[in-house]
Amino acid sequence: MLASDFQGSVLLDFLKTPVLSIQEFSLLVGRTIRNLPRRPHYGKDIILQMDIIGVGSLPIVLLTGFFSGVVMALQMSKALRTYGAVSQTGPIVAITLVRELGPVLTALVVAGRNASGMASELGSMKVTEQIDAMRALGTDPVQKLVKPRLIATCMMLPCLTAIADFVGITGGFMIAYFLLSLTASEYWNGAYRALDYQDIAEGMLKPFVFAIVISMVGCYYGLRTTGGTQGVGRATTQAVVVASVWIFVLTAFIAKIFITF
């Protein structure tokens, strides 16, 4: 009886931390969504975060998107040439990038760059008691710090994804044109005709969902930082890892929904 009680106590202690984390994260998301229509909106902070997240991430997003299209076209060229279907390079690159690779890779890049930045910035404010001072002055930290980051990420990540998709398809065209001897009309007409509204809807819904996850995870781990500078580093690492894992989990669920319907 004592052994079973001990095992039950160990199990409860093991489950206590993740259950508490889920509860705190849900409360933070609920408070942030509730504050979206409320004033003040801190427009300057939103614009600043849009510049940091969107413009700041643009170079690495361009590189990632371009070489994703290049690699996709190179990898598919051998198999397509075997079956005499080199003309299908454009459709394959376009569908793969718009549906999956474009949203996922862009979200991972933004998560690595900005979820970590949010966690480190808010974590530094937390350990230096700036957030406590903000509360003492009557300012809601969720309204001032979390809400602008959520809005900015939701606005910029779909734009970055669209840019990455186009640049990736362009990279695939460079391979198809110079190495596979496809004409521009063959490649672009095939890519255009392969995409339908469902592909575009899926490709734009994913970055919007990913933006919510990236911003909220980064802010959550930043606001719960403890332990000084070591805690800031730990929160930064946790934010990137958790956001990246959720990106893969959510893309599987969203893909399943679109395939079903």
List the SSEs and their pairings.
Blueprint: H1 2-35, H2 43-82, H3 89-127, H4 130-136, H5 141-178, H6 184-194, H7 197-223, H8 228-260
Unreliable spans are none
Radius of gyration: 22 Å
Overall 3D shape: elongated
Q: Number of folding domains?
A: 1
User: How many E strands?
Assistant: 0
Strand content: under 5%
Note the total helix count.
8
- Overall pLDDT metric: 88
Largest sheet: none
Please write the string of helix (H) and strand (E) elements.
Answer: HHHHHHHH
Helix-and-strand structural type:
mainly alpha
Distance linking N and C termini: 52 Å
Question: What level of helicity do the residues show?
Answer: over 70%
Question: What would a concise description of this structure say?
Answer:
By secondary structure, this protein is mostly helical. Helices cover 88% and strands 0% of the residues.
Q: What distinguishing features does this structure have?
A:
single chain; 261 residues; mainly alpha; 8 helices
Describe it for me?
The chain contains 8 helices and no strands. The chain has helices at residues 2-35, 43-82, 89-127, 130-136, 141-178, 184-194, 197-223, 228-260. It has one domain. Helix content is 88%, strand content 0%.
